[in-house]
């Protein structure tokens, strides 16, 4: 069975194939007749143990536009609230004869674990602070459409690196596509050991957003994940915005340095904390393009997993 558990599962050829198919799917998305018969008779289950707006609904739309039957199960409202284990829940769902499980879970590694329990394709829709591979694919797709080939382009990713699964997947996919990546965060939100990782994988680190900003082709702001900060948030929200927020003056500095630069945010956004409304709604902001691309990219991922042949090629 083929799965998408980590961005590291995909080499450059496979990323390219997914992004190219997504471009075709995007064409379908923009036409009046959206449905393709490709996954007729297949069943996709969205199993979400953490809240989601974008990922769950775009996987649902993607599956339906490929004519799959799509079922949504969330942690709240399922028998997990009665104490059923993840394994029993997953085996129960799989016993109904599903073809693919799209899973979001608060535990890092959950999707990988699930893939060992079931005979279905498994897609990681976000596991704890670990990875979110379809987010990285849709981010790359969105940036490419505006910037062209990402080889050598400078992507600056700013924010709560410690709790972000988006940053890990983006780093892998962006480096796979040859982009230059700089991660920016206050020292308190940089995970330990990141220096060695940066050296090994060839990305840069900075605590100085203003120094890095003028050289960016794309600035990706990360959400401050206060729900994962049991020990409190340091620096304070005000200090964070002053040092690391994409404020109006920083938006102006970015546009002055590079009028073609773009702004991304995976959502949901904390407006006024990591990103100002001016930046979120700017002409250079790709936030809603990212959401739109999410459907096409997830159609492509489901297509490659469920309709490709056993060598991973598209049939
Ligand atoms: N970006 C993202 O994963 O958003 P949701 O939590 O709304 O799915």
Automatic annotation (TrEMBL):
Keyword annotations from UniProtKB, A to Z: Pyrimidine biosynthesis, Transferase
Aspartate/ornithine carbamoyltransferase carbamoyl-P binding domain: residues covered: 2-144
Enzyme class label: transferase
Binding site for L-aspartate: 82, 165, 223
EC number: 2.1.3.2
Reaction(s) this enzyme catalyzes, per UniProt: carbamoyl phosphate + L-aspartate = N-carbamoyl-L-aspartate + phosphate + H(+)
Listed name of the protein: Aspartate carbamoyltransferase
UniProt source species: Pedococcus ginsenosidimutans
Gene from which this protein is expressed: pyrB
């Amino acid at each position: 069975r083929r799965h998408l558990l980590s961005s590291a599962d995909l080499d450059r050829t496979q990323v390219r194939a997914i992004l190219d198919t997504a471009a075709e799917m995007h064409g379908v998305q923009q036409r009046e007749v959206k449905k393709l018969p490709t996954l007729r008779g297949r069943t996709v289950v969205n199993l979400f143990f953490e809240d989601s707006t974008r990922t769950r609904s775009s996987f649902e739309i993607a599956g339906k536009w490929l004519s799959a039957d799509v079922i949504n199960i969330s942690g709240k409202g399922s028998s997990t609230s009665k104490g059923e284990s993840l394994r029993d829940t997953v085996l129960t769902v799989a016993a109904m004869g599903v073809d693919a499980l799209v899973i979001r879970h608060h535990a890092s590694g959950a999707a990988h674990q699930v893939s060992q329990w079931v005979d279905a394709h498994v897609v990681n829709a976000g596991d704890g602070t670990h990875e979110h591979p379809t987010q990285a694919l849709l981010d790359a797709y969105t940036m490419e459409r505006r910037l062209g080939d990402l080889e050598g382009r400078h992507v600056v990713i700013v924010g709560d690196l410690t709790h972000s699964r988006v940053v890990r997947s983006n780093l892998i996919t962006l480096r796979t596509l040859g982009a230059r990546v700089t991660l920016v965060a206050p020292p308190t939100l940089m995970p330990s050991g990141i220096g060695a990782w940066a050296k090994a994988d060839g990305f840069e680190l900075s605590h100085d957003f203003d120094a890095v900003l003028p050289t960016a082709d794309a600035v990706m702001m990360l959400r401050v994940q206060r729900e994962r900060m049991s020990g409190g948030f340091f620096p304070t929200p005000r200090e964070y915005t002053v040092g690391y927020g994409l404020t109006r003056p920083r938006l102006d500095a970015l546009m002055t340095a590079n009028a073609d630069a773009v702004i991304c945010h995976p959502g949901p956004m904390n407006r006024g904390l990591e990103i100002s409304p001016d930046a979120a709604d700017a002409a250079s902001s790709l936030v809603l393009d990212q959401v739109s691309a999410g459907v096409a990219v997830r159609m492509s991922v489901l297509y490659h997993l469920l309709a490709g042949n056993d060598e991973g090629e598209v049939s």
